[in-house]
C-alpha cells in the first residue's frame, strides 16, 4: 500500500472484524452480521438488524494523524417516534485507547410504518474524519474504527496521509454472543459502551456481537449461522423478545429452544454454551406481552386473563422453562450452563432502565462488569466461569 492511498474493495474488506459476511460491490463494502443463507428468508426486521453494525470495526496499522472514511449510513425511524433517529457514532481507538468520535445524522433512512413494514429512503454519503494524534507517529499503531451499533454502514473508502495496512488477525479466543436489543446495544450511546463489547475487553477475548434488536426469537437460520462460526465460547441471551413480542406459548418455546441448541451442537459438539436468562424488565416480569409504550413512554406489558395451562409466557416463566431445558439436557451435555440474568441486572435496578426496558450506559457497564467477574478465573464457581474456564483470558 503506498503512502497516502485509500483502501477500497477487497483491501478495505480485509480490515473489517466482527461481521459474519462482507458484501463487496462497485459501490463499496457492506458488513453483515448474518451470512446470506440466514438472510435469504429472514423477516425484514431481522435482516435490518443484521445490517446494523453492533460490534463491527476496522483494524488497521497506520502512523497517520487522521483517518478519513467515506460512508453511507442507514438509520431506522421507528413507528410512532416523533423525534429523528439518534445519530450514528463512529469511534476511533488507538492502541486500545479511545481517540476521537464523529456523529453522523444523514444518509439512508428506513421508516417503520404502523403495520411494521419498512420503507427505505435514499440518502447522501458522509465523510467521517477521525483524529488519531496531533502529528504523524514515528511508527504504525493499531487503529480500530468502531462502527455505530444501531446503524448500517456501506464503506466506500478509507484513506489517510500515511500507509494503511490491515492489522494482523486477532488470535485471542473468540466469543459468540446472541441476544436482543439489550445485547445489540443501541441504548449504550457509543459502540464502545455495549455490554458485550465491554465484557469482551475486560476478559481479553474477541467478542462477536450477534444481538438483534427485537429479534432474538430463536430463528433456525440464526442457529445455523452460529453453528458454522468458529467459537471458543457461546452465550445466548434469551427471553425478553419472546415475551415482548408475545411470540410464543410454552408449547412452542420449549421445543424451539431445544431445536436451537440441537443445531448449535451440530457445529459445536463440545464448545461451552451459556444461556443467559432475561435481565430484569419490571413491565413483563409477571405480566404477559406484547410490550407497548405506556402514556409515560415507558415499557408496559399487556395485562389480561391468563388461564391455567394456556402456556402464556412472562419473563419469570421463561426463566423457569430455560432452567428446566438446561437441567433436562445436562446428562448428555455437560458443557451447557445456565447464567442467571437477574445476577447481571436485577429487579431492584430499574433505575438503569430509562424506558423501562433498555439499560442506560451505566447499566451496560454494570452488566459487563458483573459478567466479566463471573466469567473470569475469580468466578470459576459460577456458570459463566464454567463457560469461559478453558479460555486464555486477560489477567
From TrEMBL:
SUPFAM superfamilies: SGNH hydrolase (SSF52266)
Pfam families: Lipase_GDSL_2
Residue ranges constituting the SGNH hydrolase-type esterase domain according to the UniProt record: 178-366
InterPro entries assigned to the protein according to its UniProt record, in alphabetical order: SGNH_hydro, SGNH_hydro_sf
Protein name: GDSL-type esterase/lipase family protein
Organism: Herbiconiux sp. A18JL235
Amino acid at each position: 500500500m503506498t503512502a497516502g492511498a485509500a483502501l477500497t474493495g477487497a483491501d478495505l474488506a480485509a480490515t473489517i472484524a466482527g461481521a459474519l459476511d462482507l458484501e463487496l460491490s462497485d459501490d463499496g463494502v457492506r458488513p453483515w452480521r448474518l451470512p446470506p443463507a440466514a438472510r435469504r428468508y429472514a423477516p425484514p426486521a431481522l435482516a435490518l438488524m443484521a445490517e446494523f453494525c453492533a460490534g463491527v470495526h476496522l483494524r488497521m496499522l497506520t502512523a497517520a494523524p487522521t483517518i478519513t472514511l467515506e460512508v453511507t449510513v442507514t438509520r431506522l425511524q421507528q413507528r410512532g417516534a416523533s423525534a429523528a433517529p439518534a445519530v450514528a457514532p463512529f469511534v476511533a481507538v488507538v492502541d486500545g485507547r479511545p481517540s476521537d468520535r464523529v456523529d453522523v445524522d444523514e444518509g439512508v433512512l428506513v421508516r417503520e410504518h404502523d403495520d411494521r413494514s419498512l420503507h427505505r429512503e435514499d440518502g447522501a454519503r458522509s465523510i467521517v474524519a477521525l483524529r488519531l494524534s496531533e502529528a504523524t507517529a514515528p511508527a504504525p499503531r493499531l487503529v480500530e474504527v468502531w462502527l455505530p451499533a444501531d446503524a448500517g454502514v456501506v464503506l466506500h473508502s478509507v484513506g489517510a496521509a500515511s500507509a494503511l495496512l490491515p492489522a494482523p488477525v486477532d488470535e485471542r479466543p473468540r466469543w459468540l454472543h446472541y441476544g436482543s436489543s439489550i445485547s445489540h446495544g443501541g441504548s449504550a450511546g457509543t459502540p464502545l459502551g455495549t455490554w458485550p463489547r465491554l465484557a469482551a475487553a475486560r476478559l481479553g477475548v474477541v467478542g462477536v456481537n450477534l444481538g438483534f434488536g427485537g429479534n432474538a426469537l430463536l430463528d433456525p437460520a440464526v442457529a445455523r449461522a452460529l453453528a458454522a462460526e468458529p467459537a471458543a465460547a457461546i452465550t445466548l441471551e434469551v427471553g425478553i423478545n419472546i415475551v415482548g413480542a408475545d411470540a410464543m406459548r410454552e408449547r412452542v418455546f420449549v421445543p424451539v429452544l431445544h431445536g436451537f441448541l440441537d443445531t448449535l451442537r451440530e457445529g459445536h459438539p463440545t464448545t461451552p454454551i451459556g444461556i443467559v436468562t432475561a435481565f430484569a424488565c419490571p413491565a413483563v416480569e409477571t405480566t404477559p406481552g406484547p410490550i407497548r409504550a405506556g402514556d409515560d413512554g415507558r415499557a408496559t406489558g399487556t395485562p389480561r386473563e391468563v388461564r391455567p395451562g394456556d402456556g402464556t409466557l412472562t419473563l419469570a416463566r421463561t426463566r423457569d422453562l430455560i432452567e428446566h431445558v438446561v437441567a433436562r439436557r445436562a446428562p448428555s451435555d455437560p458443557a451447557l450452563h445456565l447464567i442467571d440474568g437477574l445476577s447481571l441486572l436485577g429487579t431492584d435496578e430499574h433505575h438503569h432502565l430509562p424506558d423501562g426496558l433498555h439499560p442506560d450506559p451505566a447499566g451496560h457497564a454494570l452488566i459487563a462488569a458483573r459478567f466479566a467477574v463471573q466469567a473470569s478465573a475469580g468466578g470459576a464457581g459460577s456458570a459463566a466461569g464454567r463457560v469461559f474456564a478453558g479460555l486464555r483470558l486477560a489477567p
